[in-house]
Amino acid sequence: MKHDLKRGALLLASATLFTAALNALQKLTGTQLPALEIIFFRNLFSLPFVLLIAARTKIILKTHHFGGHLLRSVVGLVSMIMVVVTVTRLPLAEQQVLSYTQPLFLVLLSIPLLHEKPSLQRWIAVSIGFAGVLVVASGKGLLHGSATTVPSWAYFVALAQGAVGALTTMQIRQLSATEASTTIALWQAILMTLMTALPLPFIWTTPGMTDALCLVAVGAFAGIAQVLQTEAFASAQVSAIGPFAYSGLLWAGLIGWFGFGEVPGVAMMCGGLLIVGSGVWMLRHDRPARQQEAVATGTMDAATGTPP
Fold first, then answer.
1. pLDDT in tens, 281-299
2. What are the C-alpha distances in Å from 218 to residues 24, 90, 250?
3. CB atoms within 10 A of CB 156
4. Rounded distance, CA 18 to CA 277, Å?
5. Cα 107 from Cα 105, distance rounded (Å)
6. Predicted local distance difference test score (pLDDT) of residue 148
7. Per-residue pLDDT tens for 91-150?
């Protein structure tokens, strides 16, 4: 694989920009429309972009692990619902920074599910990351029951979404042992679209013109972000460009500030630094191990991982 750090970093930062933008649109529509309706259109309108990615290699739907794809889609759907619920109620930057706990939960879940033994450095990184969560929580009064207009439960849902996202990542890794990445992405898009279409007649709320345009844009932005992310990790090694995935916090902060008047507080910024720092530390810690593995196997392709 040709390693182009500048191209990979630019593409990944652009992907996080589109992700932050679609979260802002979900925040706008989430006050008017049911979460499942928003997610239906997100998956429906992102499907053409998934097909575009798959068409670059070969579109393969045949699978011997349909149950695995179904379970992964159900967990992914739960994660998407949690995102819509939290971005509707939390400032964009705070929802974004709490979503960065996914790598921390990935370490914890790897113990019972993959029987791994995390290194001391990983445990230190996890401790620093969750210390950052406590700092963010203390800034909103969650530790002494004096939260502001934002409901306390929304912060816990945002934190839980990090755990659910980590479980989704773990399922993708397990499926990747026998399935092509495009096959996983296609089944996810198809199954999520079908699953959210089933309850649609019972929850349908007719969107206005503005909301309808936002729903189209949500799906398009999700698809564009996926294309950019795929190109980014095809351009450079994950361990090299992975930290640029945290640029999403910058975009979310700027959009929240100028679009919704959400000014990040000191606690959020300090806690965010701890959470992001722990994630970057784990990425850097992974680099020597991946390089040794690549040398041992005779390959230098590190693009099989997932962004934080």
1. 887 776 544 444 433 333 3
2. 9, 18, 19
3. 14
4. 23
5. 5
6. 56
7. 999 999 999 999 889 888 888 887 788 888 888 889 998 898 888 877 775 554 444 577
Collapsing DSSP to helix, strand or coil, 57 comes out as coil
Question: Tokens in use for 59?
Answer: 């579109």
How far is residue 86 from each of residues 24, 98, 128, 151, 162, measured CA to CA in Å? Answer: 11, 10, 23, 10, 12
Q: Which residue has the tokens 């495009």?
A: 182
The residues near 250 (Cβ < 8 Å, ≥ 6 apart) are none
- Is residue 17 within 8 A of residue 245, CB to CB? The reply is no
Q: Which residues of the chain are modeled with pLDDT < 50?
A: 1, 144-147, 288-308
Are 11 and 235 in contact, with CB atoms under 8 Å apart?
yes
In 10 A of CB 74, how many CB atoms? 15
Handedness of CA 226, 227, 230, 232 (dihedral sign): negative
State the maximum Cα–Cα separation within the chain, in Å, rounded to a whole number.
57
How far apart, in whole angstroms, are the C-alpha atoms of residue 68 and residue 47? 20
| pTM as predicted | 0.84
Distance CA 171, CA 191 (A): 15
